[in-house]
Every structure is written in C-alpha cells, then in structure tokens.
C-alpha cells in the first residue's frame, strides 16, 4: 500500500492547481482567501508539509477564539475545507439522532463551534451501520440493523464491516486523549472510553483499502474497488497530528465539474498527511459530506454559522443531505 500511496501522492501533486506566483517550484497546495480570491502557495518540495502548516491562511482573522483555525485549499479537482482544533482548549465528540438531521441542526442545537458529518447509515431505514459511543454508553449499534446483518451480498464482508476504524476519545486519569483504531481494539490500560464514532477506512498511517474498503489489489493494480475508493468524490475525514491537534477535513466537488471532481481515498490520505496528520480515517462521504464552522471569516466579520456541502448534482447544485451522526467541536 505504501507504493500505491507514493504513486498517488506524485500524481495528486501534479494535479494541484498551478499558479504563476514566483516560487522556487510549482505550487503544491493553495490556500484560498474566501471572498477575495487571493492565494497563498507552498512549493512542491520536500518541505511542502511545513510550508502548508506555516502559511495556511492569508490572515489570522479566521480563528475562534484565537485558537481554532478554519482554512481552505483549492486543488485542480476539489475545494477543501479544513478546521484545526487544539485539544487543550476544545473537545471533539460525536452526536447521533433518532432519525436524520442536517449537520447545521446538530451544530446549532448543541451550540457547537464546528463539526462534520460522521458515520455510515442506511438512508432507506435511517439506521446506523457504524458503532457510536457517547458519554461511555453505546448509542448506535449496527448489529441491530437487519438490512445490514441479513444482506446476503455483505455476508462475506460482515466481520470486516463490524471492525472498521473508529475515532475515540479516552479519559486517562485527568487527561483527555484521542486515537483512531479498529473497533475491536482494546482500550489502553489506565484509560476509559468516553466516546467513539466508527466509519473508515483508515487513511493513516497506512491506507486500509483491502481491510475496510474491500478493494482487491494484485501487483499494485486494483482489480476490484467495491466502494469506489479510486474515484473522485466528495469526502470527509478526521485526523490527529503529532501535537494532538485534530483536523476536520471536507473535500468538496467543484460546481463546474460535477461528474469528475473531488478526491479519491488515496488522494485524501495524501492530503491528510501533507496537513500534518499522523493518524486519520475516512468518514461518510458523497452526498453526506458537509462541514460546519462558526467564527470569524477572513474579512474579520462574525460568522454566525456556515455549512459547506461537498457533493454537487449534474447541474452543479450543492446537495444538502441529512445524516445520522456527526462529530462536533465544543470549548472545554
């Protein structure tokens, strides 16, 4: 899988929007100032990661309260929204609803500062296909979803479906810690599981396409891609950096290219790595992809809450789909 990700990273870098700004190399990522169109770029060099982190936004105005950062990046195939969350001041926790709700409804009801769509669900019966734990109690159990458990097409993959990656919050003494791990992995000694939300596949440190996306790869070539992991689509992901910062990422399709824009999962993994994530996982994507942010915009104006949607229809209109679960950001 390292070979697949390396090839993807090279091709993805070549596909990023190129600019004529004077840099030592062609630009790798571009941070787009919403509303003004001004660009910041980082050179396509081995120091690209540090440059992206050092110059993510054109002004410091899009932080709230002076700690959470909202950033945007324009690539050749997607417009990416990123929220950086320092865990010393903020918590990232899941929420789930009985039916389905828009991300904005979740966020406004909870008074959240930011959020993204969360785990998988069946839009037909509105039941979860992801495990979710809130305040130490399991509140969503995919084994209770008959359409999942009795589907003959999924029987061979059911064990892997029920052991996908999940984003966890632990209480370890007085410390709050986060991790991304498989559902059946044990809780670390000395810690208690506070919350978790399952999705997948894992993106980093290794891309788990075979284990969680049910892809079949022979000699580096995809012979089966059950979930369309190699196709561009709207995507949502969560990552953790080595400084315990949490990244909420939503890659939106371009409205002028509705049928061939977005990111593949290998591209998403590469993007998360460039942003500084050392651990990351894919969340529900496609029509579910959405990111919510409340704070100051890039002009320093107070943003009372804006939801950005990822998928577009054939006419280029954003699709606003209600979801089963979300991940929300709150002040401690």
Could you give the topology of this structure?
Elements: H1 2-15, E1 27-32, E2 39-43, H2 48-54, E3 63-64, E4 68-74, E5 79-86, E6 90-101, H3 103-110, E7 114-117, E8 121-122, E9 127-128, E10 132-134, E11 137-140, H4 146-149, H5 158-161, E12 165-172, E13 175-182, E14 192-198, E15 202-204, H6 209-212, E16 215-218, E17 221-225, E18 235-241, E19 245-252, H7 265-275, E20 277-282, E21 290-296, E22 302-309, E23 323-331
Helix pairs in contact: 1-7
Oligomer: single chain
Largest sheet: 9 strands, antiparallel
Total of DSSP H or I helical runs spanning 4+ residues: 7
Query: How much strand?
Result: 35-45%
The average pLDDT is 82
* Structural class by helix and strand composition: alpha+beta
**Overall geometry:** globular
- The count of β-strands is 23
Percent helix, as a range, is 10-25%
User: What is the terminal-to-terminal distance?
Assistant: 38 Å
List segments where confidence is low: pLDDT < 50 over at least 5 consecutive residues: 9-61
Overall number of structural domains: 1
């Amino acid at each position: 899988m390292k070979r697949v990700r390396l090839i993807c990273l090279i091709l993805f870098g070549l596909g990023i929007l190129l600019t004529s700004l004077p840099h030592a190399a062609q630009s790798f990522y571009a941070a787009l100032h919403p509303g003004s169109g001004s660009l910041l770029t980082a050179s396509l060099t081995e120091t690209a990661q540090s440059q992206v982190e050092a110059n993510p936004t054109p002004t410091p105005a899009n932080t709230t309260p002076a700690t959470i950062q909202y950033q945007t990046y324009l690539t050749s195939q997607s417009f990416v929204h990123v929220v950086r969350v320092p865990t010393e001041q903020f918590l990232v926790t899941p929420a789930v609803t009985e039916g389905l709700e828009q991300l904005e409804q979740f966020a406004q009801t909870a008074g959240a500062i930011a959020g993204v769509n969360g785990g998988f669900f069946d839009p037909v019966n509105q039941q979860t296909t992801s495990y979710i734990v809130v305040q130490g109690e399991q509140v969503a159990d995919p084994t209770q979803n008959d359409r999942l458990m009795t589907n003959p097409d999924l029987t061979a993959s059911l064990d892997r479906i029920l052991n996908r990656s999940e984003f966890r919050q632990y209480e370890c003494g007085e410390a709050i810690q986060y991790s991304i791990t498989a559902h059946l992995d044990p809780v670390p000694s000395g810690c208690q599981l506070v919350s978790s939300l399952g999705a997948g596949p894992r993106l980093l440190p290794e891309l788990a396409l075979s284990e969680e996306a049910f892809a079949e790869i022979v000699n580096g070539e995809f012979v089966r891609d059950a979930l369309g992991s190699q196709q561009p689509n709207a995507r949502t992901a969560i990552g953790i950096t080595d400084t315990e910062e949490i990244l909420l990422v939503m890659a939106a399709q371009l409205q002028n290219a509705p049928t061939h824009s977005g990111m593949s999962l290998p591209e998403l993994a590469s993007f998360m790595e460039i942003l500084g994530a050392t651990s990351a996982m894919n969340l529900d994507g496609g029509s579910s992809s959405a990111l919510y942010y409340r704070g100051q915009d890039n002009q320093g104006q107070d943003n009372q809450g804006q939801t950005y949607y990822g998928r577009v229809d054939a006419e280029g209109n954003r699709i606003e789909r209600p979801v089963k679960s979300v991940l929300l950001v709150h002040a401690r």
